[in-house]
Design goal:
2 domains; about 230 residues; mainly alpha; Rna Polymerase Sigma Factor, Chain: A; three-stranded antiparallel β-sheet; 10 helices
């Protein structure tokens, strides 16, 4: 895994810019910021749900980047390193919101299990291919809206794992929780987001109802009064 990280760093198009910035070339630093600022802002916005807070995190991230340019060890992609800095700043703000400046977004009860994962209320085949839908701007807007409705701890895991591509271990380290809890929270987030999108893109005529026992589901005709909007 370490070799793969070194390889990804050596092939990184941002690496030359960072090296020049580290040597004192401010124009290269500005160019690097320009290339990464949309991703940094996007990560912060999805984690925090507020544009003003996301802008603050972006500014703090690039200020930190100036201070820590010499700390980058070229063991991972530059963008991944910068996004970890951004995620840390966003997490600090989330904890401050909760009045817990030094406490991680963790559960006091240890490992979060799967037995109480809420069962989807609305299950249906999608009218269009999900891969095609994901390319549409309105779908991305819906995803952002749905993310805003998730609890902080589920939204954060989903953003780090499924949007930004951090590994389970990296996500666990950032959030100061176990890898098992990362996986449990990610499942919850994925189920919640899928149900929200299925209500929009699911084929009502092919809807599947469940007995909520986590056993088999059988397709039936839509029944009045059962939908949960």
């Amino acid at each position: 895994m370490h070799d793969a990280n070194e390889s990804s760093a050596s092939n990184d198009p941002d690496l030359d810019l960072l090296r020049r910035a580290r040597a004192g070339d401010f124009a290269s630093f500005e160019q690097l910021v320009g290339q990464l600022q949309d991703r940094v802002y996007g990560l912060a916005f999805r984690m925090l749900g507020e544009s003003h807070d996301a802008e603050d995190v972006a500014q703090q991230t690039f200020l930190s980047l100036v201070e820590h340019l010499k700390d980058y060890r070229e063991e991972s992609a530059v963008a991944g390193w910068v996004l970890r800095i951004a995620a840390n700043h966003a997490l600090k703000l989330l904890r401050k919101r909760r009045g817990l400046p030094t406490v991680p977004l963790s559960e006091p009860g240890g490992v979060e299990g799967y037995s109480d994962v809420p069962h989807p209320e609305f299950i249906a085949h999608w009218r269009d291919d999900p891969a095609d839908l994901a390319e549409q701007r309105e779908v991305r807007v819906l995803i952002d809206q749905a993310l805003g409705e998730l609890d902080d701890k589920y939204r954060t895991v989903f953003v780090l794992r499924d949007i930004e591509g951090f590994s389970v271990k990296e996500t666990a380290d950032l959030l100061e929780i176990s890898e098992a809890n990362v996986k449990a929270r990610l499942l919850r987030a994925r189920l919640a987001l899928r149900e929200r999108l299925t209500r929009v893109f699911g084929d009502e005529t092919a809807r599947v109802f469940s007995d909520h026992s986590h056993t088999e589901t059988t397709p039936t005709a839509p029944r009045g009064g059962h939908r949960h909007e």
